[in-house]
Amino acid sequence: MRQAELARQAAIPRSVLSAYESRTRDPRAASFIKALEAAGFELCLRPVPTPAQDREAARVLLQVLELAEALPYKPPGLRFPTFRTRIA
Q1: 23, burial (CB in 10 Å: exposed 0-12, middle 13-18, buried 19+)
Q2: Most buried residue, 13, 38, 42, 68, by most Cβ within 10 Å?
Q3: What is the pLDDT of residues 10-64, one digit of tens each?
Q4: Residue 28 lies inside a defined structural domain of this protein
Q5: Residues 9 and 34 reside in one and the same domain
Q6: Domain for residue 44, yes or no?
Q7: What global pTM score does this model have?
């Protein structure tokens, strides 16, 4: 997409969009989002887990996998190695 078309679709003056691209001007959040959407993108924000949250999630996952392996029912046809074997 050409700069002029993006500027038109985003309702941002072409000179302002040019200044954003050349880093001589910083866009406000609303202008940034309008330009992204005009270019066919969507801004999605999500919280970043802390290392402690990652460790806790890994601990819980390990417990779930160990519990699943301890269950007496094994569906026929499943031929996966046990969790301990895969990480060894």
Answers
A1: exposed
A2: 38
A3: 999 999 999 999 999 999 999 999 999 999 999 999 999 999 999 999 999 999 9
A4: yes
A5: yes
A6: no
A7: 0.53
